[in-house]
Design a protein that fits this description.
The structure holds two protein chains of two kinds.
Chain A lengths: L2 H15 L2 H8 L3 E5 L6 E6 L2 H22 L5 E6 L2 H4 L48 H12 L8 E5 L5 H15 L6 E5 H14 L2 H9 L3 E5 L8 H16 L3 E6 L11 H8 L2 E5 L4 H15 L5 H10 L4 H18 L5 H12 L8 H12 L3 H5 L5 H18 L3 H7 L5 H17 L1 H16 L1
Parallel strand pairs in A: 2-3, 4-7, 4-8, 5-6, 6-7
Antiparallel strand pairs in A: 1-2
Chain B lengths: L1 E5 H11 L14 E7 L2 E7 L3 E7 L2 E4 L2 E5 H10 L4 E7 L2 E5 L4 E5 L17 E6 H11 L14 E7 L2 E7 L3 E7 L10 E6 H9 L6 E6 L3 E6 L2 E6 L18 E6 H13 L6 E6 L5 E8 L3 E8 L1 E3 L4 E5 H9 L5 E6 L6 E5 L2 E8 L5
Antiparallel strand pairs in B: 1-5, 1-7, 2-3, 2-6, 3-4, 4-17, 7-8, 8-9, 10-15, 11-12, 11-14, 12-13, 13-26, 15-16, 16-17, 18-22, 18-24, 19-20, 19-23, 20-21, 24-25, 25-26
The chains are: A alpha/beta, B alpha+beta.
Chain lengths: 458, 367
């Protein structure tokens, strides 16, 4: 049982013994933090504030201890600690909508970057801070082309890629650059697909569909983030389809981002998919080491922090999959150095990185690869490792070989041996074939990315 | 329990604990306050689970005891009484309030149901500070703060100490006020930096009237202030205050020295003519000999007020929300004030001439 399950059981038990209001007031935001490290039988229970701590300690200690002991007999005592309530239960956020009032001039903010209420764009994002590497140069070039030739050249522009790889940065930059380049002559609107869905739902409820139509059709550039979420929401998809057509016919620029290509959004309607595919589709993938290092350096410079070259190199080498994580680690390290006013040591650095990357550097074994690939293609694992020549195992096996070579750097003879006692030349052929095909066949590339994702998630 | 208390003392004590009384649908007892006796003293306490206020009440203890009393009923009884002396007696959770010619019985609640008010250690720091200094400093910055659900970290007053210099900062994202106090606390007070919730800061201003000094203890997530028999215990805001020092301009391209009171008048006048966004324009006149405070609204009219100034640097014209300017002028105490400009889009600095302890920064409206 993990901590959460343990605590749910305990709470379920306590709920029967105390009154509902008391339960809600004192225990709703509590959590079980596990046993203390030294294994002295002391369990840690987290509570949202000191009042709850005092109260629970004096009133419910016996019930909680009894309940916990039923689950884990080695617990002898409980320590109560105050943990920020916000950590687990973020307070509901209600944002007041700025009133649509064109006479009122915007008040600048002191500290935060402000989001332009008219375009929804965050001015923080621009091309200058966008680091270009081999992983995103295509997307970058397309974005620049769009700025130069709004609505004409690549329309729609469809950018896809994994989480935290800079999609939002890129598409918001396009918006900002367009505003800059055309001196506010062009109206730009940036929305998340969630916002679009909400607008449509609201309008349907209030019977004010015209508002939505006006809002989204009276513009020159429409930027929609995370389009994959509108898949399956019929009314929204329909409205989006009409909006899309109207804009497209009038040569208005449409920019869309998603976490996968249009063909891989399962619930997307066919007519929308075909329209997305009619424009320019570019992807952003995991940045390589050099790009990551460049990003780190830029971020560090932005925040005005001075970090040792070695430390940055280490961060760039270890945090591979997500730029946001990269930024998070950097912030933590900078904070740590300021707070301790000294250079961070290797151990602490490792700790911070591991915390962010979550998966501790685990050894991926050849078996993991075979299993993941087999599962992905839904072929029996046994077929992969035997001399079967069935058509359906050929591609999976070749991909497994390629991954073993690329991820694990295994020797060709060893690879051949693992996958059905094949000759090393077979392995060489497979690896060459796949790496060649990756660049030509986006479908294959996508498959491999997905497999890798699963592999790292193990 | 049996107590005899002067009515005026009761009113005062109820006033102190009033804002601590909570509203919680789940826990109706928070609408009550605790009355208890402790070694011959009478204590009132209220809490809303974020903040707890305790207050000693002068009076005579005839029999010890403890009970929770519904605040609003008790408060209205006491307020409307004419008698000088009030006898309060508790038996089986029933509270009898009697004077010469009045008698009431109020249903109380078991004191055991009342939340336990947490104790505060002084792990993170403790110091004494003169009540006047503390109230001045908080009163100076608090108009610049605003409660924000989205940004809890600025919904409070940042109180920090380093090398014996205390700093108080508040901001709402559009303007910021900082008050520094040197020599207010002993040098030995360690470095700390905490965010006191806005409500707590407001309470500090309201109570501690009779106290010369206030003793403050801070632990990881709470703060305790005590003085003159009154105690305030509050949670602290868990978050990182924005790097406010980066916002305060280090140097200014143009500095204008101006009579504070005169500018207050000008801004107040201009405010009558400002539009929906409360905007007024402050423009440095030719030769830098005067500034013009100008406002106009299509439906009202326009006006312009010229105030003589001394200027160094280039001429500027900046648009402001007049409230922000007025707040900034009001928190200063000096005769003259120095306004520092860098551009019409950059934050503007207001400091008192010859008094660097109060710093106010306001963001202009984009023209």
């Amino acid at each position: 049982m993990n901590h959460e399950d343990v605590w749910q059981t305990v709470l379920g038990d306590i709920e029967l013994q105390i009154s509902r209001p008391n339960f809600l007031t004192w225990l709703k935001n509590s959590q079980f933090l596990g046993k203390d490290e030294k294994d002295t039988g002391v369990a840690l229970v987290g509570l949202p504030n000191n009042f709850a701590k005092e109260w629970v300690k004096s009133r419910y200690h016996k019930i909680i201890l009894g309940s916990l002991r039923n689950i884990d007999g080695s617990i002898k005592n409980i320590d109560y600690v105050v943990v920020g309530a916000n950590a687990k239960n973020p307070i509901a956020i209600s944002v007041k909508k700025p009133k649509a009032d064109n006479d009122v001039r915007p008040q600048s903010e002191l500290i935060e970057t402000r989001i332009d209420p008219k375009t929804n764009l965050n001015p923080r994002y621009d091309f200058k801070t966008f680091i270009v590497g081999s992983s995103n140069e295509m997307a970058y070039a397309a974005a620049q082309a769009v700025v130069k030739d709004v609505g004409k050249k690549y329309n729609p522009l469809f950018v896809y890629g994994g989480v935290g790889l800079g999609k939002t940065h890129l598409i918001q930059s396009i918006g900002n650059e367009i505003i800059l380049a055309y001196k506010n002559q062009v109206s730009v609107l940036y929305v998340s697909s969630e916002k679009f869905i909400n607008d449509v739902v609201q309008a349907l409820r209030n019977k004010r569909m015209d508002d939505v139509k006006r809002k989204y059709r009276d513009i020159d550039v429409l930027i929609i983030d995370d389009i994959q979420f509108i898949g399956g929401k019929t009314a929204t998809e329909q409205e989006f389809f009409y909006t899309f057509n109207t804009l497209y016919e009038n040569n208005k620029q449409i920019i869309i981002s998603s976490d996968r290509p249009p063909s891989a959004i399962p619930t997307l309607e066919e007519r929308l998919r075909s329209r997305f595919e009619g424009g320019m589709i570019v992807d952003v993938v995991y940045p390589d080491y050099e790009t990551r290092l460049a990003i780190l350096k830029t971020k560090a410079k932005e925040t005005g922090a001075v970090l040792d070259e070695k430390i940055m190199e280490q961060i760039a080498a270890r945090v591979q999959k997500n730029i946001r994580e990269l930024e998070g680690v950097l912030n933590k390290v900078v904070f740590y150095e300021q707070y301790k006013s000294g250079q961070i040591d290797n151990k602490k650095l490792e700790e911070i990185i591991n915390e962010a990357v979550q998966v501790a550097p685990r050894n991926i074994t050849p078996n993991d690869i075979v299993k993941t690939v087999a599962e992905f293609f839904e072929v029996p694992t046994a077929d992969m490792t035997q001399r079967s020549r069935k058509q359906e195992v050929v591609e999976p096996r070749q991909i497994a070989m390629y991954l073993m070579r690329e991820v694990l750097k295994m020797s060709y003879p060893h690879i051949g041996d693992r996958l059905g006692k094949r000759d090393h030349t077979t392995a060489i052929h497979a690896c060459d074939k796949i790496s060649k095909e990756i660049s030509q066949n986006p479908g294959l590339n996508q498959k491999i990315l997905l497999i890798k994702e699963r592999l790292y998630k193990l | 329990m049996k107590l005899i208390i002067l009515r005026t003392n009761l009113i005062e004590a109820l006033g102190v604990i009033e804002r601590g009384v909570g509203e919680n649908a789940n826990l109706p007892i928070l609408k009550s306050f605790l009355v208890k006796t402790e070694s011959g003293r009478i204590l009132f306490a209220s809490t809303n689970l974020e903040l707890a206020i305790e207050c000693a009440v002068p009076g005579k203890v005839i029999a010890d005891g403890v009970v929770a009393v519904p605040f609003s009923v008790f408060n209205s009884i006491i307020k409307n009484l004419a008698a000088e002396r009030v006898t309060i007696e508790e038996k089986d959770k029933k509270i009898m309030i009697t004077t010469d010619n009045y008698e009431a019985v109020v249903q109380g609640q078991d004191a055991n149901e009342f939340p336990i008010i947490p104790s505060v250690s002084d792990d993170a720091g403790s110091f004494s500070i003169s009540t006047k200094d503390l109230k001045d400093a908080i009163g100076c910055v608090i108009p610049s703060a605003q409660y924000s659900e989205i940004r809890p970290e600025i919904s409070g007053v940042l109180v920090s100490s380093s090398d014996g210099v205390m700093g108080f900062v508040a901001t709402d994202g559009f303007r910021l006020a900082e008050k520094t106090l040197s020599n207010a606390v002993a040098d030995s007070v360690g470095d700390f930096s905490v965010i006191i919730p806005l409500k707590t800061a407001g309470e500090i201003l309201r109570i501690f009237d009779g106290a010369e000094t206030v003793d403050v203890s801070i632990d990881q997530n709470q703060i305790l202030l005590k003085g003159n028999g009154e105690r305030v215990i509050s949670r602290l805001i868990d978050g990182r205050f924005p790097d406010y020092k980066a916002v305060i301009p280090k140097e200014c391209r143009t500095e204008v020295t101006i009579d504070r009171q005169e500018l207050i008048n000008a801004v107040k006048l201009a405010s009558t003519f400002s539009g929906k966004s409360n905007d007024i324009t402050i423009r440095i006149g030719e030769n830098g000999k005067f500034i013009e405070v100008y406002s106009a609204d299509a439906s009202i009219g326009e006006n312009s007020y010229k105030v003589p100034v001394k200027t160094t640097g280039e001429r500027f014209s900046v648009i402001f929300n007049w409230r922000y300017v007025l707040d900034g002028l009001k928190i200063h105490k000096t005769q003259n004030i120095v306004i520092g400009f860098n551009s019409s889009e950059k934050p503007v600095l207001l400091i008192g001439e010859g008094d660097k302890t109060v710093v106010y920064v306001a963001m202009p409206i984009r023209g």
